[in-house]
Amino acid sequence: MNFSVKFLLPFLLVGIISPALATTLKWSMPGDSLTLDPHAQNEGPTHMVSRQVYESLVTRTVDMSIEAQLATSWSTSDPETWVFKIRDGVVFSDGSPLTTSDVVFSINRALSGASDVIELIDSITSVKSTFNNQVEIKTEGPNPILLNQLSQIFIMSEAWSKKNGCEQSQDYDASQETYCSINAMGTGPFKITLREQNTRTVFERNDKWWGDQSQHNIDRLELLPIKNDATRVAALLSGDIDFTNFTPAQDIKRINGSALHKVASTPQARTIFFGMDQGIDELRSSNIKGKNPLKDKRVRLAMYHALNMDAIKDKVMRGLSEPAGMITFPGVQGYTKELDTRLPYDPNQSKKLLAEAGYPDGFEITLDCPNNRYINDEAICVATVGMLAKVGIKVNLDAQPKSIHFKDLQNGLSDFYMLGWGVPTFDSHYVYSFLLKSDGSWNKVGFKSDRVDELVGTMLTETNLDKRNANIAEAWAIVQDNMPYLPLHHQVISWATKSNVDVPIRTNNEPLFRFAKVN
Amino acid sequence: MTNYFLKRLLQSVLVMLIVAFVSFSLFNFVGDPVHNMVGQEASAEKREEIREKLGLNDPIYTQFFRFVSNASKGEFGLSYQLRRPVSDLITERLPATLELVFVSALIAIFVGVFFGVYTGINREGFTSNFILIISLFGVSLPTFVIGILFIYLFSVILGILPSFGRGEVMHIGFWSTGFLTFSGLKALILPSVTLSLFQMTYIIRLVRAEMMEILQTDYIKFARARGINQNIINYSHALKNGLIPVITITGINVGTLIAFSIITETVFQWPGMGLLFINAVQFVDIPIMSAYLIMVAFIFVMINFIVDIAYYFIDPRIRFKEEAMVE
């Protein structure tokens, strides 16, 4: 009797204690991933969730630099052919080994059907397994940013996908639900064991993960979306959640004031700016008829000099912004500190420039702003109205929800508008192809420069990095000289945690829980 | 009788059709769902393709007809955001909202009646005045302020109740309930009290006024003269008669509770229909928005319809008027 108690006690204790020892991290953000299918939506929170479960050939580490993940090495045999060596000994969380055919399957899946990431990798023309655990990828013309692009393409198990009838990406637009959109099975550090969309998602440590398990000590991760800012902060302060990567600016002081919590901030990979339509012959909303004042560079500069971004930083952003001189941010290929330095705040200079341009009494214009898209978007616009009024430009503010604001922008209905731009590839080409190329789909300012168009073309094909960088620099010089957009600031993001929780902050706001520690 | 019944039914149908039209117009006037669905970088062709898939390019009357005939079958299409049938989403969320509304209605009625009687009997006492002043906060402070205050007091400072969510739930068929677990019951306290405050105040004042009026009537005086115990007079004679208007008002207000629960659910991240609706508004998820509008309208119309019919049987004046008109 006595013996059996002694003998059994340790086992009993293990049974009782071990669940309590499991380290749990509770994470909250306002919304949830839209789908677990890793190719069906190219959207921030969706990638945040998928990234904990799925991995890619190469990935961005905490400081956003590219590093090997499922591929151990790569080389180009000619400018259009890449060869990736696939990591040995990687298994999926169901125990099946990762093979080159899984990689080929996944890239083809991402490239076909209803996949939402096609546009990211559409330069890939073929992908096939070769000998020695290698995968060969051919691109249409040289592609110097292929690695950037591949870091967004998650690798799935071919057998698992086929068995569950989702060898094609979920058709999100056709409102399809598939097994893969509500389940996830990858090679990553966590596996999803419970999914209640918009309420609770439970991840557990994947014991079969190939990576360094000691990098993190999270046994269980729970995603608990909380929409209301005040409630999310209260949940953090009361200990119901451990971490949020969406911390409202107005609450940072209070969270920092709590001895049990801390806040980390970093400039976000997103820049906010104003667009000014200089392509149209007569503005839609101005009292100036028959001509467009924004066509005149002096007017655009006058507006630039009138904006006191330091004041907006202090008063509107509560210190959480980095005033910007260019429309992209540190870390993007082509960014330089010099270009990002703002021209001085100088209302007298503004008035002088306006007078020179023939508008000594200013003019009238409507500013279109979203009110639920960027941090304090509407408040920034309100502050702008006052600043421009000081130099004689009468701005009528039209702040609307993002769904209406962006619809109007797309239909080309705005003279003067706010826009923010992130760069998932961390390369200037992304900025140029959308915002500055004359036929760029988001070039709503009518900016047109033949030389810039030519340079955008070479950015995609020039594989000599020095030459390519020179091209990017030349393009930026032209843009900065013309100032088609008014740069405002880089957003700063803040992550709040309990004091004993460490989640390294990243500029793209995407947490990597494989580096998280609960002490 | 049939005439009266048919007239009411026709009115109800007309109201529903108008609501249907309003919620249908949402599809055309509230932002562009396509923008939210495809993100900033999608091409114009892709957008057009999606418009076509969603049937947004058909003529308005075709769209309206399709909408009404589907809605009458309980089909509201698929959510733009969640990609699942709206009817499924609502069925999933309904238990959370109904449990919340049920509990807060109970709190409102029991606490409200108790305090109402108390303040009705002890008109000038300190406690009565205290209750009345406190109950004023219930009507004058907005629900989200009260909710946040409760969260700060009971979760952040005292740390005794959860700040959000529903706790652990158990599934019985399609119904998910928080009544059967400790954490589920704990999670119910703050949101249901928050939601009940407004109704509670209402009931306190109503019962108080009724009690004060009834206590002056002859039959109460007579009962007193007969030497009946004061408690029996208060609760058995007076309260019974005072409750009739309370029941009517509370019945109608259950609909209001469901509508009010939007704010409470947002503050407490309560996974019910209100939260679904708020999420839908931000995403311009029109199928959910219109289904919600129609559902709430339907609840109100049904309650009104039942009340009208009940009046017919309770109030002889309506009956006689109708019969006179038929002849």
Structural features, described:
The complex is a heterodimer of chains A (519) and B (327). In chain A, α15 (450-461) packs antiparallel against α16 (465-482). Chain A is globular. Chain A is of the alpha+beta class and 519 residues long. Chain A is 31% helix and 23% strand. Chain A contains 16 helices and 21 strands. In chain A, the strands form 5 sheets. In chain A, strands 1, 10, 11, 12, 13, 14, 15, 16, 17, 18 and 19 form an 11-stranded mixed beta sheet that branches. Mean pLDDT of chain A is 89; it is low at 1-20. With 327 residues, chain B is mainly alpha-helical. Helix content of chain B is 78%, strand content 2%. Chain B contains 13 helices and 2 strands; from the N terminus they run αααααααββαααααα. Chain B has helices spanning 2-29, 33-38, 44-54, 60-72, 86-121, 126-140, 143-157, 182-214, 218-225, 230-267, 273-283, 286-314, 316-326, and strands at residues 170-172, 175-177. A two-stranded antiparallel ribbon of chain B has the order 1-2. In chain B, β1 (170-172) and β2 (175-177) form a beta hairpin. In chain B, α10 (230-267) runs antiparallel to α12 and α11 (273-283) packs across α12 (286-314). The A-B interface holds A 31, 34-35, 42-43, 116, 119, 172-177, 181, 197-200, 224-228, 230-231, 234-235, 237-240, 372, 401-404, 406-407, 410, 434, 441-442 and B 30-33, 35-44, 47, 49-50, 53, 78-84, 148, 151-152, 155-156, 159, 162-166, 266-269, 271, 275, 278-279, 282-284.
Strand fraction of chain A equals 15-25%
The biggest sheet of chain B, with number of strands, parallel, antiparallel or mixed sense and barrel status, is: 2 strands, antiparallel
Strand content of chain B: under 5%
Biggest interface: A-B, 42 and 47 residues
Based on CA atoms alone, the radius of gyration of chain A comes out at 26 Å
Number of helices of chain A: 16
Helix content of chain B: over 70%
List the total number of helices of chain B.
Answer: 13
